[in-house]
From TrEMBL:
The gene is gloB. It comes from Cereibacter johrii. Monomer. This is Hydroxyacylglutathione hydrolase. InterPro entries: Clx_II_MBL, Glyoxalase_II_hydrolase, HAGH_C, Hydroxyacylglutathione_Hdrlase, Metallo-B-lactamas, RibonucZ/Hydroxyglut_hydro. It comes from the Bacteria.
């Protein structure tokens, strides 16, 4: 059976994600911006938390870890490369490592760019990928530590996942990201439709996360740096894909 997914809004625009294996009763959470909303979601469902998975070290993804660990006894897993600046880890992870949620196995993918030690978690049997601040709905994370080339290679890894994969990213940024995307491909029917869908969801107070990878491939400009139409819009027809990605990121930073 696929994992049950619960999206938990935290802080002002963050998300944590509960994943639950009904057969075994095991539950994990990906990222802990704050403990309170996660504890409430667990209590409402009668679930016991056994594992905390961390994508990266930024405080808006780990600030609630110690409170949640103390309340639940959950083990904490995160990137070995960032162990020195994450909460104390029970399990250190790197590319290709496996994590278990009940009977479901997830694979660790190293996705540097936003931070140098950023990781993602892919659970293929449930078509779920937890990408933190690497690949996001209609966008990607700012390059606080890594290079444009590193982030582009990270996004290529994530782009290669099955298109039906749900991308569970860390923030509610889709509306702003969509407005920016429309400046690059204003005549794209798929983008026009998605911009409208995102606007309607936000007006009704509904989250835009998670999103399907197929929609990101069709409309997210940061995944489309290799597309001829995007290169033409930027006046960069002869540029390499990573160079085009860097220009898109530069423009978004000023948007």
């Amino acid at each position: 059976m696929p994992l049950e997914l619960v999206t938990v809004p935290c802080l002002s625009d963050n998300y944590a994600f509960l994943v639950h294996d009904a057969a075994t009763g095991e539950t994990s959470v990906v990222d802990v911006p704050e403990a309170g909303p996660i504890l409430k979601a667990l209590e409402e469902r009668g679930w016991r938390l056994s594992q905390i998975l961390l994508t990266h070290h930024h405080s808006d993804h780990v600030a609630g870890v110690e409170e949640l660990r103390a309340a639940t006894g959950a083990r904490v897993a995160g990137a070995a490369a960032d162990a020195h600046r994450l909460p104390p880890l029970d399990l250190e992870l790197a590319e290709g490592c496996r994590v278990q949620v009940g009977a479901s196995e997830g694979r660790v993918i190293e996705v540097p760019g936003h931070t140098v030690g950023h990781i993602a978690f892919h659970f293929p049997d449930s078509a779920l990928a937890f990408t933190g601040d690497s690949l996001m709905a209609m966008g990607c994370g700012r390059l606080f530590e890594g290079t444009a080339e590193a982030m582009w290679q990270s996004l290529r890894k994530l782009s290669a996942l099955p298109p039906e994969t749900l991308i569970c990213s860390g923030h509610e940024y889709a509306a702003s990201n969509a407005r920016f995307a429309a400046t690059l491909e204003p005549d794209s029917p798929m983008l026009i439709f998605r911009v409208g869908s995102i606007a309607a969801a936000r007006k009704e107070g509904r989250p835009t996360v998670p999103s399907h990878l197929s929609d990101e491939l069709a409309t997210n400009p940061f995944l489309r740096a290799g597309e001829a139409g995007v290169k033409a819009a930027l006046g960069m027809m002869d540029a390499g894909d990573a160079e085009v990605f860097a220009e898109i990121r530069r423009r978004k930073d000023k948007f």
